[in-house]
Amino acid sequence: KRLGNRAVRDILTGRRSPSGRLTMSFPYSTGQCPVYYNRYSTGRPAKDPYHSDRFTSRYIDGPSVPLYPFGHGLTYTEFEYGSVELSSGMMRRGEKIYARCTVRNTGKREGTETVQMYIRDMWGSRIRPIRMLKGYERVKLASGESCQVEFIIEEEMLKFYTLGGEFAAEEGKFRVYIAPDAADENFAEFELLGETKIDT
């Protein structure tokens, strides 16, 4: 009990910086439930989730995005994300590519950031989620300090049960997001290529 009291005291008084993250999407209202970060894409997605045009996927009386997205968290400092960089814009089967992003503590205090990597399959034989969490890394940075966070992307991460019932990765375009939560749009794209055929 005493340890719990001290932990709460240290967070509230600023002696420690919080670094927890939401493990669910927190809705604006119960009318949005169920709400998931890895929801399926729709045929007419709204360009602006707060002020949508007619004939798009939206709520009439509220925004189409959660109040707090999956992976959201607050602390006593701020972090800035650089652009996502890929080691290659193309990936062949059996190979791997690397996704990198520079994260900088722009606040006045030391803090811990949970850097998250999501992947989106742009087109599939079955409908695919708008993004899926595929990795994360916690980095502790002093004020003004920066570091490069790197993730490995392998073919196994891209697999799903296809229309033919096979657990496989399909050729096509993918997006890689490196961001503080599931709503951020910091991404780069790559393409998964098929096997090279050699004429004999």
Order of helices and strands: HEEEEEEEEEEE
Radius of gyration: 20 Å
Shape: globular
Strand order of the largest sheet: 3-11-10-5-6
> How many separate helices?
1
Mean pLDDT: 90
* N-C termini distance: 74 Å
Classification by helices and strands: mainly beta
Which regions have little confidence, pLDDT < 50, spanning 5+ residues?
none
Strand content: 25-35%
How many beta-strand runs? 11
Helix content: under 10%
Biggest sheet details: 5 strands, mixed
Task: Lay out the secondary structure.
Elements: H1 2-13, E1 79-81, E2 85-86, E3 90-92, E4 96-105, E5 111-121, E6 132-141, E7 146-154, E8 160-161, E9 167-168, E10 172-179, E11 187-193
Parallel strand pairs: 3-11
Antiparallel strand pairs: 1-4, 2-4, 4-7, 5-6, 5-10, 8-9, 10-11
Characteristics:
mainly beta; 34% strand; 200 residues
Would you mind describing this structure in some detail?
With 200 residues, the chain is mainly β. It is 6% helix and 34% strand. It contains 1 helix and 11 strands; from the N terminus they run αβββββββββββ. It has one helix at residues 2-13, and strands at 79-81, 85-86, 90-92, 96-105, 111-121, 132-141, 146-154, 160-161, 167-168, 172-179, 187-193. The protein has a 5-stranded mixed sheet with strand order 3-11-10-5-6, with no helix packed on it. A hairpin with a 7-residue loop joins β10 and β11. The chain is globular, with a radius of gyration of 20 Å. It starts with a helix and ends in a 7-residue tail after the last strand.
